[in-house]
Automatic annotation (TrEMBL):
NCBIfam families: MGSA (TIGR00160), PRK05234.1 (NF003559). It comes from the Bacteria. This is Methylglyoxal synthase. Gene3D superfamilies: Methylglyoxal synthase-like domain (3.40.50.1380). SMART domains: MGS (SM00851). Belongs to the methylglyoxal synthase family.
């Protein structure tokens, strides 16, 4: 197993362009991590930055958020970047809540918007 830290990347539909842009802009920083992502987000990230080490899980509405939540609970995810869309109704809203709850329970760094994610990258550069 890789000794790289693991970062989870997720974006809701209206935020996926933003996530693709974020991944492209910060490929060098993100390359230091193992990345797990929900299915569609992971595809967009790989299109934008093909050299990143991305494992794609299920799509969010089909269980991807819960898979990442489980990985947080088992200590496999060190950091969460989740570009949420607070203006759209989602069929899997309970899964989103469960995921952000577990990130809080296990006290892992969690950025829910791009401004926070940019700060993570800045901090990580030192
Ligand atoms: O819905 C999501 C997170 O709640 C994201 O899932 P996708 O990346 O598969 O679209």
């Amino acid at each position: 197993m890789s000794d790289k830290q693991c970062i989870a990347l997720i974006a809701h539909d209206l935020k996926k362009d933003d996530m693709a842009d974020f991944a492209r802009a910060h490929q060098a920083s993100l390359a230091k991590f193992r990345i797990v992502a929900t299915g569609t987000t992971g595809g967009r990230v790989l299109d934008a930055a093909p050299n990143l080490d991305v494992t794609r899980l299920k799509s969010g509405p089909l269980g991807g958020d819960q898979q990442i939540g489980a990985m947080i609970a088992t200590g496999e995810v060190d950091m969460l970047i989740f570009f949420i869309d607070p203006l759209s109704a989602l069929p899997h809203d309970v899964d989103v809540k469960a995921l952000t709850r577990l990130a809080t329970v296990y006290d892992i760094p969690m950025a829910l918007n791009r401004a926070s994610a940019e700060k993570f990258i800045d901090f990580q550069k030192g």
